[in-house]
Queue: 4 jobs
Job 1
Amino acid sequence: MAPRTYRINAIKVAVFYAIAGAIWIIFSDLYAKHLSEVPSPVAWYQMSKGLLFVFLSALLIYILSARQMLSLLEARKLHEESESRYRTIVENVTDALIIFSGKGTVTYANPMACEMLGKSLDEIQSLDPRAFIPTGMYDLYSKAWELAERGEAFFGEDSSPEIHPKRTVHFEYRTTPMMYDGTLHLLASFRDITESKQSAQALIRSESKFRNVLENIPLIGISLDMQGRLTFANDHFLALTGYSRKEALGKDWFETFIPKDIRNIVRSVYEKTMERQELGELSTFENEILTRSGARLKVAWSNVLTRDVHDRIVEVTCVGVDLTERVRAENALRTAKTAAEIANQAKSEFLATMSHEVRTPLNGVMGMLQLMESTSLDEEQREYIATAMDSSMNLLRILSDILDISRIEAGKFELVDEPFSMDEVIAPVVDTYSKEAAAKGLAFRCEVAPNVPPELEGDPVRLRQILFNLVGNAVKYTETGEVLLQVSALPHAANPSRLPLHFVVHDTGIGIPDQKMNEIFETFTQVDSSYSRRFGGVGLGLAIVKRLVGMMDGSLAMDSEPGRGTDAHVTLYLRSSARAEAAQPTPAASAEPLPCRPLRVLVVEDETVNRFYAVRMLEKLGHETIEAADGESALEKLAWEKFDVVLMDIQMPRLDGVSATRRIREDTSGDFDPDIPIIAMTAYAMPGDEEEFKSAGMDDYLAKPVEAEALAEALDNVAKRIAEPA
């Protein structure tokens, strides 16, 4: 009721009182006047006082009534607000609330209770509690009333499939006695914990499954709490470390299982890994762990964080892989690799030494043969000399092949990139093998297509070596028919800077069976051992060809038919050279070639035969020679005498040729001429040696056995340089 209504009601009470009082006073005074016959003025005065009193009393009644009614209104309003507030709370709590009366009826049920029971409030209130309380729980209901009568609460946890028509309900309950309208009532609260129970059961199943997986995988599986204590260890971990489960669980992980010398490092890495995982990053790490016997195992770990309902990390599960055997295998492999590298290095050093030791006497043999060839000989003697020279050259080729394949396998074989003429590459091949083919009665042809540029850039020495091996094999294994060398340029529009040259070596020889096609590219392998005896050779030619073609980014293919012959196809990518004849300066018409005067040559060579051959060859060329047996002797002679050029052997006792050259070039005392031409003569004929010698300060390089033509050309260049005006 509004305050205005209360004021109107108060006014009505006051007016009623005033009217009733006035009527009473008027009629009572008139009657008294009649009885007593009081004078009229006095009577009216008395009546006026009575009326005034009545009206004042009515006003006071109004004020008091209005205040009382407003107080009642305020109290009622507070009561309604309180009731509304508590009703809102009760109807919106997640717990189900039911009030049972002492008569066994439901007086109230909140919406959550209706939802839990699957019934409306009207349905619940119309039913006896036995209708919806599960049969197995009615004893609990009776016990709750017994405790309520003693003023005690009752609580617990249970589940029942009878509460809700569609599902089993898990719940917590609590009953509290309460008085209402002077009678005892029972307030029962129920909390539906079905979802949390299901979640807990799912978590238990998941954890059980997870534990089963960890227990049965062939990996290390452990769990640590936040204090670093071991809370779980699978059988694989226990088997590796030698601990029993009872001994291991509860132990401090770092103090028990981590070696003392790396304990702080592992703890720091572990903590940093945890920080990264908290940020959602995946991380792994490796460390050693200790077994019960004190042995160390190398393990690679991955971690999984376990969190509680508040998203706090409560446990860390670690899965590890035992790397111990792998590490041992890697160490063994590394040791084996190191041993192989040492052995390979030893082999290279052995071959280098062998090169010197074999080439040195071979140089003497070939030198003496060349000297003998320059004397007066009859035809029979010249034939003997030519045969001996051919045998020496064959021995030299075998030695070179062995050195080349060794350097390639050691990864120390380097290609050069320089301008060259295709004629310079092909001419020696044709000149050498056309004679051999003619001697066997074979036709030998060489065809170079017009589209092959005359000037190219690449490694001419290795290209010539490839052709020498392929053509040499073709001539060697062909008894009748022909050998053909073809060179052509393939279309190259896709990459104009790289010119694909196609080389084909065709023969009508013995051919290669299909099952042997891959084997012939292996070292020391031929088509058949009988052929090796019949045709000779050590089986290195094609192995070298395959490796050289691969190093030059080319391709090699063989097309062969036993008894009919073989076609070897090689494709190499070279560049056209900008070198042109016009770019070379042409001497003036009036200028005449400068004469090559005799030179004063210091021959530094420790081998007597080779020194004798060099001296005799130089004398035949018209030069003056002085001999030195090693680098120290050479320096002594250079300090006291003047020479035009030095022929320097490389491997010598006391002081080798490279060291002697460096001392000459780096001299600041004035004892030596630092600019004197120095030409290396060595049996170290392996790729890369020329660069090493030149970096030491040598001007030119001659490989033993030194041919007379090569020596004459080298000295000619020195003489021309000396004759040129400064």
Job 2
Amino acid sequence: MKKFIIVTLVSLTLSGCYSFGNQTLKNVTQEDVKAKIVKGKTTKSEVLTAFGEPDKRITSDDEEKWSYSMHNYRSKPTSYIPIVGILTGGTDIEEKSILITFKGEKVSSYEFTSGASEMKSGVF
């Protein structure tokens, strides 16, 4: 019986999470980005070292943009409690992104965004 309870709890915990995108950003803060990216100085290779390959590259006439994003979804533990889950269940959402613009080989600008939200699936 103990094994069944442990397996059930582990399964519920693991099934309640979903992540996609560049997980390098998971623990990155605005201060980290400021320390790693300096406008007019940081190069493409330094950005690759810091954040890995971008999710998307957009090239125009005189500039190139690299986009990084991370999305994590975690079900609230109350979602798995019978009756309580129907009333108060939901998902916590964490999102982060960096958009870096290069002119030549150097960063000309960047934007870091970070946010958390909640998606409710319960009545309340």
Job 3
Amino acid sequence: MTAIDLSMNMLSGPIPIELGYLTTLHSLNLSHNYLTGSIPESFQNLMSLESLDLSFNNLSSEIPPQLAQMNALSTFRVAYNNLSGIIPLNGQFSTFNASDFEGNPNLCGPMVGRNCSRGTSQMHRFTDDEANKPRVIDNPVIYYSFIAAWYAIGFWGVIAVLAFKENWRVKFFLAADDLIYACESGISSLARCIRKCIGK
């Protein structure tokens, strides 16, 4: 097998590291899917690979610097993912175009015209770790406690307003009386209809 094209197949999940052991591959196209995770470092074993297209996915983390050792690689596309960190400059990577990396705002280097500060890699790793940590609000107990607290605040807020604003209190009770009367009328009408239907 020398070529695999699985583009536009709605694939999801991480890229299997086993693909990196198909050493006879010359072309691999996984573009326009929903792949997540990082680019497998095992791809460095694909020394015969000439074309690798991973564009239009949801891949994250850094571009493995080991891929710069793939001397046969003439096409490398990772546009429109969530990649971060420094774009390798050595090897075949010096021959690629900026369009091959566009749509990854956290990538940096001369290729995309964004300077890389010292510790860029560490910063993005920290960001990824923070994003994967469970948030406090994700705890269902805290979530429902938060909702209950807001309901309590709203309820007692209304009570406080009615206690101190006499004109509002009068309007509130008049509106409540109208609502109760409307409900009673509706129930009475429904009861009459039911009795008529039963009588028939």
Job 4
Amino acid sequence: MYRLLTIALGAIGAMSLLAVVLGVGASSEDTGPGGPAASAKTSARSESAQAMVLKRDGSGQFNLIASANGSEVAFLVDTGADMVALTEAEAENLGLMLDESDFEPMAQTASGVGYGAAVTLDELVVAGQEFHDVEAVVMRGLSTNLLGQSVLGKLGKVELKGDSMVIHRR
């Protein structure tokens, strides 16, 4: 599990570093006065009961709002991430109590070693589908919560169609 986690976090770290270097990311101009969460709320719409459609935001990313442990959480949908990754601030908002000793070296990134802490979300609700005991990681330095394949794969088949991401529900 740690090997897979290390690979996933390495990819996350590399993508995050690349985004910072290239200046890619949401700005207040892209997301409007409500910030990323307000933009994410409007980016998802239901095509039918069997599919969910997400539209690209101003930075070319796909975002959605989910419920984690009963709280609304904005996620970047990351098909390249193996699992759910949370920022330290979000973990704190969700009441996930972490100690300094919980963080371990989990990934080698271009900027150095990435430290993360494994956590379990009691409940995650995405597009009306409930998931329980979801393994996730809280990553130091992560600026956005990531919804990875551990949940996307359970939601259904992911397909890109132009500026839309269609998730065909199982």
